[in-house]
Write a structure and sequence with these properties.
It contains 21 helices and 19 strands. By secondary structure, the protein is of the alpha/beta class. It has 2 domains: 10-126, 2-Layer Sandwich (Chitobiase, domain 2), CATH 3.30.379.10; 132-539, TIM Barrel (Alpha-Beta Barrel). It starts with 9 loop residues before the first strand and ends in a 19-residue tail after the last helix.
Length: 545
């Protein structure tokens, strides 16, 4: 069996292998010369001198890389015989993904020192279902650092995921340098403690926490991602989840009162302290708020060439807006009937500013209830409960990204949302109205990091869920089969072993008798984060070879 995740659109195994070694000759169309790194970086044992772009001796080439404009963007065709490995693509992304598919089939041969690769003879015609295939990483709650982000990007590329939604700011920390507002990192990137042991706990580590990326580090990561056909979309939360910014500049709130970077997650800790106004939004009435936001956006958009910019927009408390003279004045001046429309106005001003830079705004689906949101804005549907505004906006023609909680919230425990629930998800079954599938930009899996403090835990929550996500977003919906996916999974686990990925074992990722009773789920959340599914690596029998 030829084992590739995500499953190709069409694949047929043939008898025999094509042998590649350091003497193999590679010919490529001149139009693909700038794209050849997508292949050569993976098969680096074939030296540069072996590549030809002039069309000479093409019939003698071991590998032929052919330009074919009829091949879909990001798609590729592979025709491998004992005589030649032929790859047809229309650009860089397709060549990269062809290389990733071949890499998966010969992965363990690439780990050897002799670098003689036997590629199975096969015929593949492949293309993605959705253009947007994303993973979200939350670094406000816990900070993982440049090397770990690059490691995640490598894993994403292997499984043809092409968007990293980078959550860089929230109540618990501001993680990106803004030169015009240095206090955002001097104050906003640090918190005095960190909440542990789950949503029902008030326990703390007893240690301060901090960290942020310089703009030079951001540029380096963005460029690294580009070489893997991954676009990084920044998320700068506003108007809610804004405490780290208001701790640095308290004039951003309706009331200019002291504010701290939150060292807790959720409301249990502040409410136990009698702190009633801990959850606040930025003031939507002051022009100084918009000036700040536009200045921040101006610096960040210079770092990220992404076509999208995310501001969250979820869970925005509005009690202060109802009493704030600046907010009430803004509403009156613009004929806004209520504070929901005020948030729509807030979002539309940001969307207009971004549009001048050739970018589109993304907001979570809670922001759709404003009713006055510009149609250029993309909605992202995450909430567990059905949101009638989502179907309403689909029918209006709004573009959407699907991140449905029950399928794609990877920070949730497997006993609550098992791997099978991710794999079996189909947006057109219950979310997308008939005739609106073209408005689904794609799918995205999320890893919020309130209770994910290290890379081992991050790995376990993401994998193998990210493989199921990749197949959801790439493969033809009529060709998905969970039994077939599970048959291919052990081979992919061996690859993850070699890459040092601390994935969840099968009995954890999809346990028999999944927990449905609420009290049992809460009990799990209150226990030690890792206790239920931390495996003993010394007892692991699987090897890379």
């Amino acid at each position: 069996m030829i084992n590739i995740v995500p499953k190709p659109y069409y694949i047929m195994e043939k008898s025999g292998v094509k042998v590649l070694d350091k003497n193999s000759a590679v010919s490529a169309d001149e139009r693909l010369k700038d794209c050849i790194s997508a292949f050569s970086d993976t098969f680096d044992f074939i030296g540069e001198k072996n590549y030809s772009f002039d069309g000479k001796n093409i019939d003698k080439s071991d590998v032929k890389i052919v330009y074919d404009k009829s091949v879909a963007d990001e798609g590729y065709n592979i025709d491998c015989t004992e005589d030649c490995l032929k790859i047809s693509v229309s650009g860089f992304a397709g060549l990269l993904y062809a290389a990733m598919s071949i890499k998966q089939t010969v992965f363990f041969q690439l780990q050897g020192s002799d670098k003689v690769i036997k590629v199975p003879c096969m015929d593949i015609q492949d293309k993605p279902r959705y253009a947007y295939r994303g993973v979200q990483l939350d670094e406000s709650r816990h900070f993982f650092g440049e090397d770990n982000v690059k490691r995640l990007l490598n894993l994403m590329a292997l499984y043809k995921l092409n968007r990293l939604h980078w959550h860089l700011t929230d109540d618990q920390g501001w993680r990106i340098e803004i030169k015009k507002y240095p206090l955002l990192t001097e104050i906003g990137s640090k918190r005095k403690d960190t909440n542990i042991h789950g949503w029902h706990s008030t326990d703390m580590t007893g240690e301060p926490y901090g960290g942020y990326y310089t703009q030079e580090q951001i540029k380096d990561i963005v460029e690294y991602a580009k070489k893997l056909n991954i676009t990084i979309i920044p998320e700068i939360d506003m108007p809610a989840h804004f405490a780290a910014a208001m701790a640095a500049y308290n004039w951003l709130g309706c009331r200019e009162i002291p504010c701290e970077v939150h060292w807790f997650f959720g409301g249990r800790v502040p409410l136990s302290m009698g702190w009633r106004d801990w959850n606040r939004s930025a003031c939507a009435g002051k022009e100084s708020t918009y000036e700040f936001i536009f200045n921040v956006i101006d610096e960040i958009t210079e770092l990220f060439p992404a076509e999208f910019f995310h501001i969250g927009g979820d869970e925005a408390p509005k009690d202060e807006w109802k009493k704030c003279p600046n907010c009430q004045k803004k509403m009156k001046e613009n004929g806004l009937k209520n504070v929901e429309e005020l948030q729509g106005y807030f979002n539309n001003r940001i969307a207009e500013h971004l549009e001048k830079k050739g970018k589109r705004l993304i907001v979570w689906n809670e922001a759709l209830k404003a009713g006055n949101l510009d149609m250029s804005v993309v909605g992202q549907y995450w909430t567990p409960k059905n949101d009638p505004n989502v179907k309403k906006e689909f029918k209006k023609g709004r573009d959407m990204i699907i991140s449905k909680h029950q399928a794609f919230y990877f920070d949730m425990c497997y006993c609550q949302y098992p791997l099978s629930q991710t794999y079996k998800f189909e947006p057109t079954d219950s979310i997308v109205p008939n005739g609106c599938e073209d408005n689904v930009l794609g799918l995205e899996g999320h890893c919020w990091s309130e209770w994910i403090a290290d890379v081992d835990k991050l790995d376990m929550q993401l994998f193998p869920r990210a493989l199921a996500l990749s197949e959801d977003a790439w493969s033809c919906k009529y060709d998905k089969n969970i039994t077939d996916f599970y048959a291919r999974l052990p081979y992919q686990e061996r690859i993850l072993d070699c890459l040092g990925v601390n994935y969840a074992e099968p009995e954890i990722a999809d346990p028999k008798g999944t927990l449905h009773r609420k009290h049992e789920v809460q009990k799990w959340m209150m226990s030690d984060q890792d206790r239920e599914y931390r495996r003993n690596k010394e007892l692991k029998l699987k090897k890379c070879k």
